[in-house]
Every structure is written in C-alpha cells, then in structure tokens.
C-alpha cells in the first residue's frame, strides 16, 4: 500500500496503529487505491442508535469490504 500511495511503509504503519493522523491527500489517495468513494472512508455509523438488523447489515458490509480489499491486493504488504 505504501508504494501505491507514494509514502513510506513506516507512515502507513503509524496511521494503521493510530500514532499518526492521515492527511486529506493521503485519504484521497487511499480511497482511489481501494476504489471506493472518499466519503466511504469517513463513514462511521453510530452503533448506539442502530437496530439489530442495522448491526447485522453493518457487520456484513465490514466483511464485504475486507473480502474486496483482500481480493484486490489491498491487504498485501508492499
């Protein structure tokens, strides 16, 4: 991923571990690299107000995102 985003692997690692806040430029590049809209990167539903059905759908969506990322090589260490 670092190579795709033209940043160091250390920077990606720090963002992943919450030790560094990504820039908007980085987030735009990340969204483009994984082929999702930028707004999708920021989407974080409030879990306290969700129904059981919404929680289940959110879980399914998380699984689908992980599967998509894995199949497109996003999770590969570069």
Question: What can you see in these coordinates?
Answer:
This protein is mostly helical. It has a single domain (2-71), classed as 434 Repressor (Amino-terminal Domain) (Orthogonal Bundle). The protein is 60% helix and 0% strand. It has helices at 2-5, 9-16, 24-33, 38-42, 52-71. The longest helix has 20 residues, at 52-71. It is globular and about 40 Å long. The N and C termini lie close together (6 Å). The mean pLDDT is 80.
Quick summary of this structure?
By secondary structure, the protein is mainly alpha-helical. The chain has 5 helices and no strands.
Residue fraction in strands? under 5%
Q: What's the rounded overall pLDDT mean?
A: 80
Rounded to the nearest angstrom, the radius of gyration is 14 Å
Question: Structural class of the secondary structure composition?
Answer: mainly alpha
String of helices and strands: HHHHH
What sort of overall outline do the alpha carbons produce when their principal axes are compared? Answer: globular
What is the fold named in CATH at topology level?
434 Repressor (Amino-terminal Domain)
What's the tally of helices? 5
Q: What is the terminal separation in angstroms?
A: 6 Å
CATH class: Mainly Alpha
Name the helicity range.
55-70%
Query: What is the number of independent domains?
Result: 1
Number of strands: 0
Name the CATH architecture: Orthogonal Bundle
Task: List low-confidence stretches.
Answer: none
User: What kind of sheet is the major sheet?
Assistant: none
